[in-house]
Structures are given as C-alpha cells and as structure tokens.
Amino acid sequence: MTVVALPELLREARRDGYAVGYFESWDVYSLEAVVAAAEAERSPVIIGIGGLTADHAWLRERGIELYGAVAATLGRRAAVPAAVIYNEADSLNEATVALGAGYNAVMMVSQGLPWDQLISDTAALTTAAHRAGVAVEGEFDELAEMRDGELHDAGRRLTDAGRAADFVQRTDVDCLAVSVGSVHFVTGGHVPTIEVDLIRALARAVEVPLVLHGGSGVPPDQLRAAVAAGIAKVNVATRLKQAFGAGLRGALDQDGEDPNLAYGSRLHGDVMSAGAQAVCAEARRYMQLLGSSGKAVRR
Questions:
Q1: What is the DSSP letter of 154?
Q2: How far apart are alpha carbons 130 and 138 in whole angstroms?
C-alpha cells in the first residue's frame, strides 16, 4: 500500500467522525511498533518523528534524512493507509530540510515568532512543500507544558476562531493544530480540561481539519468529546515513551548474560523488542479510543 496524503486521511476521518493518531517515534523499533499497531487494528495511521524533544543540530545534519528514509519505507510497506510527517520543526529552515526526505507532511512550531513572521514563514513553507507534494500542518498558538512535574502556562493562549480563519486563508495550510486546553509532556497527575465548545467553533470557522497536540495527557472521555466536536488528528508521544520505558525496564530486570541477544537482536530476549511491544499495545489502545480501528480502506 502506498503512503497516503495527510489531507486525504484527515478528510476521511472528519467525514466519518473519528480521528487519526500521529504516534511519534524516536527509533526504528518504535516506528515498526506503531505500524504493527495500525495493522493489527486495521487503522489508518500517521508515523514519523519530531523535533520538540530532540537535538536539532543532529536532526538537521542527518537525523531528519535518516528517519525520513526509514519511515517512508515502513509507510510504503504498511498494510494500512499511512502518512509520514516530520513534526514540530523549530524553524522554516529546519522544516524545508524535511522536503524531499521521505515525509509527505511537515509541521513547524510557532513559539516566539511575531504574527507577521509566522504568517510569512508558514506561507513560504506551504508554497515550497506543495511544490514538492508535501502537506503542511500549521500552528500559531502555544500549549501549556509540564516541566519537572509543574505546569508552565505563561505562554499559553487558546486559539481564537477569527485568527484561525485568517491564518488558514493567508497561509494555505492543509490542517491546523489548535490550542484548546491540552498540555504538552503530561507526566504527573495534572488533568487538562479540553474546551469542547471552542473546538466546535473552530471547526465551523475553518475548512481544514483540526489537530490536537498533547494527546497523551487528555483523559479518554475528553478525547472522545474532542473528536466528536471536530478534531481529526491527535498527537501522542509522551505515553508511548512511558510505555517503552516500562517495557524496557521490565525486560532488563530479566536480562540474560549475552548482550548480543539482549540488545538489537530481534530474537527472544531482546529488551528493545519488549519496549516496542509495549509501544504497540499503547498505540492500539489509542486507536480504539480515537475510533480509527477498523477504518483502514484498502486502496
């Protein structure tokens, strides 16, 4: 099955009342685990890597290209529709590195950019990306985030419907990440509150599909409500790394004497495979929650 355009996946999701998950990966094991989850659930999926918690110098030098090649290969081989995204580039320059590197979608963060520069940079990215056959996810508001167990929300701003319509019209983005109460990096007991009425207003204001970042910290009932209100894509990362860590630690507790089997063998006793199996199980849980299970359409 070929890699499918992100706008196509999200239009189908919005039409049929479910959301497609973007399950952020960080190595080949996690990328394979996400694809395996989608195939097991017969779910469309968005795979890829992101720059928000990675070394940007390494990404620009080689990481974007390396992971783009692996993710594109896995996307082409997947038995379900898959899009491949480079998520949360830190600048226009970094986002353009992903063009032609195997991704068919790219997203650039907005933190710290003045409005006029954000508009011009996003429009420039969209022009270049569309020329290369790559979709663009836009963003212009910041989420709150957890740091060392504390909520930092000084820069947070909920997305205004009028600004959203103006941004989409002026940049021609293919989907829009919105700030509606979710929080990045939820690792403690904090429970965010999703503004469901705001999602409905945003869905009425713009024609492009809406994206929810910070999906890891959103309780199941709120995620379902967000999808019902108009969210077509949900980003999940932190929960997958938590699952991977737990699976890895459990396997390490029973680590054998032969490191050749324990690390990277893909054989019984490979602790990395144990972490990947935990990622697969967590991704499957989210696919069921988002309603995408069973929605894969063979093309």
A1: T
A2: 13
Residue 228, Cβ density class (10 Å: 0-12 exposed, 13-18 middle, ≥19 buried): middle
Compute and round to an integer the Cα radius of gyration of the chain.
18
Question: How do residues 32-91 score in pLDDT, each as one tens digit?
Answer: 999 999 999 999 999 999 998 899 999 999 999 999 999 999 999 999 999 999 999 999
pTM: 0.94
Q: What are phi and psi of 144, to 5 degrees?
A: -70, 165
CB 151 within 8 A of CB 193: no
In the block, residue with structure tokens 């108009």: 230
DSSP 112: T
Annotate 253-298 with DSSP letters as a single string.
TT--S-HHHHTT--STT-HHHHHHHHHHHHHHHHHHHHT-TT----
